[in-house]
Every structure is written in structure tokens, then in C-alpha cells.
Amino acid sequence: MTFSNALLAGLGWSAHFLQQLSVEEVETLTPLRIAEVSRSRAVGIGEDEGPQLLVFPPDLSAGDIAVGDWVLADGARIVRRLEPRSVLSRRAAGHVAYSQLIAANVDTLFIVTSCNEDFNVARLERYVVMALDAETQPVIVLTKTDQTDEEEAYVAQARAISDKVEVIALNAKDPTHLARLAPWCGPGRTVALLGSSGVGKSTLINGLTGGAQSTADIREDDAKGRHTTTSRSLHRTLDGGWVIDMPGMRELGMHDVSDGIDLLFDDLTDLAARCKFRDCAHEGEPGCAVGAAIAEGTLDADRLARWQKLKREDAHNSASIAEVRRRDKSFGKMVKGAKAVKAATKRSRD
To answer: Dihedral (C-alpha) 65, 68, 71, 75: value to the nearest 10 degrees?
Structure first.
């Protein structure tokens, strides 16, 4: 097996993954990139670029692997997941706090919103924080410019979020507009699209891929007996790269993204460091540099409120998920211990 040929490189394979392999794995296993994940199996693509159905090993499940991951396979069985270069995840919806993988090995995150009532600065900031924390380049893509007379106003608001973020405004149905996204969609490059339902992600996907899907759908019944399809998938772009399509996501629970928050709000982080008291809550305390900036008009009070909200949410969700992980680990040890006692008892009886 050759692990450095042009086909694998075109899929995003690099030295980062090759250096994780042993000599035996190079000789006996096949590297595949995950294109789809369902409850009981996945689809991988490799050197021949044809979809291959894969089953999970006992120590892995669908929740442990994301679209965009690289795995090593022995025939139709996944042997192990390779450590990704980047991971996008969120706090899953529901009462039980746990981390849900969204996508892996993404070079650029296209944060898609439309030039209408869907546009929401706070939501865009959440997506940008997630991208920055994962060391993935964020690009805000404003769609439906053909349906508004206020395109420049939307662009100005998006650019004001951060100078670390590229902003592209376009009509997704116009091929000349789509060409502006080409720099991020070349061979070996992977982009993912995130945004609310109805903002034009499907139109963008069809335009970037020519409407041709690179993998076959997997369909299977869920726990309630309804016929469902996998929600995330990897497709080849017309420019030779790969795009991960994802369902609409209006809510994005943040966790373990403190670095991303600090990067996006670095101006506030710097200001807070100049406050008189280290534990300053920026709520009128004497010597508060943040409050002084608001009074001077150099800082928007709404931006401060969004920063504080994100930090509180991240701290709460991170702690909740960590606690669930600790409980699960303790429970696993208890079960393992009980099994060991049971086995020892059986041996003594025999």
C-alpha cells in the first residue's frame, strides 16, 4: 500500500496522518476517509475513490467518528481512527451534557447566512469561535445578495465581527459569484458549511460540486422505526477539493472553546487585563478598563454582553460534560470490576 500517492493527497492525506502509522499498519491496512456515518456503519473513500461500507470495531461507535476523519481499515472493518488535525464539535442538544462531533480535518469553515432576517451577529460569532478554537479558517458567506438592496450593510456588520474572518457576499445561483470561493476548494482542501436552514447551503453545495454526490447514501431505521438518512456527508468539489455538507444548525452549544473566545474577543481580553482588580466583573467596579472603554465609546456594550455570555456558557457546558465523562468512567470501572469478580468466582467454583 502506498500512503503518499496523488489520490490520497487529493483526499487530504498528509504527513500528519502518515507519521501515526506503524510499519505493520503501512503494509497491511488501508487508509480511508470517512464520507458518511450512520448508527451502525460508515462509508469510507480511498485510493479508488469508490465508496466502501465499513463496520465499527468493538471499541468505537458512530459517536466516536466524524465525517472527514481518516481511519485504517482491514477489509470492511475499521481498525482504528487516526488523530485528526482539527475537530469541530458542539454540546449536543438534550438534558444530558455530552460532546457531539460535527466534522474532522476541516481546513475552512464556510459560515453561511443570508442577507435577510436570518442574519444574526451573536450566532455568527459562535461559529467563528468554534472555527478559531479548532484552528480552522472561518469564512463568512453572505447569500441571497440578489434579494436585498442592503448588501453593503450586511457585509459591514459581518466584517466588524473580526479582522480574522474573511467575508464573501454572493448569489449562490451565479457561477461567477461561486468562483470567489475557489481559493478554499482546491485539491487536498476540505471545507465545511454551517448555518441555519434556508440560508442557501444546498444551493452552494450543488454549485460547488456540480450537483454530483461523491458517495452513496446509507439509510436505516432509527430507534423509533422511522426511515432516516445520514445527516452529514463528504462531496468532491469541481475545483478538486472536498466539502462537508451538514444540516441546518440554528443553535450551537459551546464547550471547551476558551481559546477560540479569547482569539475572537482579543480586544476585550486585553482590556480586561488592564482592570484594577483581577476578578473584575466589568459591572461598574472602580478601575474597570472595560467600563471605561464603553463610556468613551470605543467599545460596544452589546459586544461585551455577548463575550460574557459565551464565557459563561462555555464554562458551564465544559464543566457539565467533564462531570458526565467522570461518571461514565467511574461506572465503566465499576462494571469492569464486577465482571472480574464474577469471573474469579466462577473460576473458583470450577
So the answer is: 100
Residue 256 pLDDT level (bands cut at 50, 70, 90) = confident
Residue 39 has pLDDT above 90, yes or no: no
Share of the chain above pLDDT 70, in %: 79
How far are the Cα atoms of 85, 224, 313 from residue 221, in angstroms, in the given order? 32, 8, 34
Q: CB-based burial of residue 185 (10 Å sphere; 0-12 exposed, 13-18 middle, 19+ buried)? A: buried
Query: How buried is 210 (Cβ within 10 angstroms: 0-12 exposed, 13-18 middle, 19+ buried)?
Result: exposed
Residues 12-49 as b or e (16 or more Cβ within 10 Å = b): bbeeebeeebeeebeeebbbbbbbbbbeebbbbbbbee
Q: Yes or no: say if 205 and 181 are a contact pair by the CB < 8 Å rule.
A: no
Other Cβ atoms closer than 10 A to 296: 8
> Is this structure's pTM higher than 0.70?
yes
The pLDDT, as a whole number, for residue 222 is: 34
Task: Please give the full DSSP string across 213-278, using - where no structure is assigned.
Answer: -SS---EEE-TTS-EEE-S-EEEE-TTS-EEEE----S--B--S-HHHHHHHTHHHHHHHTTSSST
pLDDT the model gives residue 21 = 95
Owner of C-alpha cell 476517509? 33
